TrEMBL record:
Taxonomic lineage of the native organism: Bacteria, Pseudomonadati, Pseudomonadota, Alphaproteobacteria, Acetobacterales
NCBIfam families per UniProt: rmlA
Function, in words: Catalyzes the formation of dTDP-glucose, from dTTP and glucose 1-phosphate, as well as its pyrophosphorolysis.
Name recorded for this polypeptide: Glucose-1-phosphate thymidylyltransferase
Origin species: Acetobacter orientalis
Residue intervals of the Nucleotidyl transferase domain: 10-245
């Protein structure tokens, strides 16, 4: 079994799949490149990984869509991070991402973010950085939903410790859904190799998480009031995500899901670099706000 590592955590952003639930929009464009208000969807989970302090990030997508992500994101230098790109020839489950990235991981711990998930919360960066700094085990984030049967569901004992994780249960034991953000120690590749395809022919992330649950090293942070988790994989939720971002930005004057702003706040880029990035945005509201942030530094 792989031993605990002091290697900095790496991040994987999984942006594959065919997006059939968003047809016909995704017949011509990747789901994760669709707009969520004023930014492409992929910006939001990318910002989440960066808020965790992760600077080495692999983007995994389909052979058709990967060049579009490379065109949008480049090598990462504009955000003070490093991007690597890999193809997922066929979507065969979330844990497949770790197998694709095996040689790149090089025994490092890893966080994985799904490309259609948006998480917003006060002090989110603190929670993310704590998860990234844990040297052993896995950390998941759970969120209360009205329709838990659509998700992986985690139940808890009276002390708040995770008792079970079940994928899309017919009779959910709780209404706490596991979000599309996962932090793992460097055993994750070993566990991913042990996951076997489910009845639907995919490697299930719930089966991987269960390895950590069974050895007592699974941490589950519950996102409470003041937090929002949006899975933008359906037309209604895509629209709701855009409305949410618009509301926060318009009423509070802060940006949501801006990798450039996160890079600046985290000290990855200088005010001058942020200003240059803002200029590339032209006469957009996003460009104006980024310029204000740079000028106020």
């Amino acid at each position: 079994m792989t031993q605990p590592s002091s290697t900095p955590m790496k991040g994987i952003l999984l942006a594959g799949g065919s997006g059939t639930r968003l047809y016909p929009m995704t017949l011509a464009a990747s789901k994760q490149l669709l707009p969520v208000y004023d930014k492409p969807m992929v910006y939001y989970p990318l910002s989440t990984l960066m808020l965790a302090g992760i600077r080495d990030i692999m983007i995994i997508s389909t052979p058709l869509d990967l060049p579009q992500f490379q065109r949008l994101l480049g090598d990462g230098s504009q955000f003070g991070v490093n991007f690597e790109y890999r193809v997922q020839e066929k979507p065969e489950g979330i844990p497949q991402a770790f197998l694709i990235a095996e040689d790149w991981l090089q025994n490092a711990p890893c966080a994985l973010a799904l490309g259609d998930n948006l998480i917003f919360a006060d002090h989110l960066s603190t929670s993310l950085q704590l998860a990234a700094q844990r040297t052993t085990g896995a950390t998941l984030f759970a969120y209360q939903v009205r329709d838990p049967e659509r998700y992986g569901v985690v139940s808890f004992d009276k002390t708040g410790r995770a008792l079970s994780i079940v994928e899309k249960p017919a009779m959910p034991a709780s209404n706490w859904a596991v979000t599309g953000l996962y932090f793992y120690d460097n055993r994750v590749l070993d566990f991913a190799k042990r996951v076997r395809p489910s009845a639907r022919g995919e490697l299930e992330i719930t089966d991987l998480n269960r390895f950590y649950l069974e050895d007592g090293s699974l941490h589950v942070d519950r996102l409470g009031r003041g937090c929002a988790w949006l899975d933008a994989g359906l037309p209604d939720s895509l629209m709701e995500a855009g409305q949410f971002v618009n509301t926060i930005q318009a009423r509070q004057g802060m940006l949501v899901g801006s990798p450039a702003e996160v890079a600046f706040r985290m000290g990855y880029i200088t005010p001058a670099q942020l200003r240059t990035h803002a200029q590339r945005m032209g006469k957009t509201e996003l460009g104006r706000v980024l310029t204000l942030i740079a000028d106020s530094a």
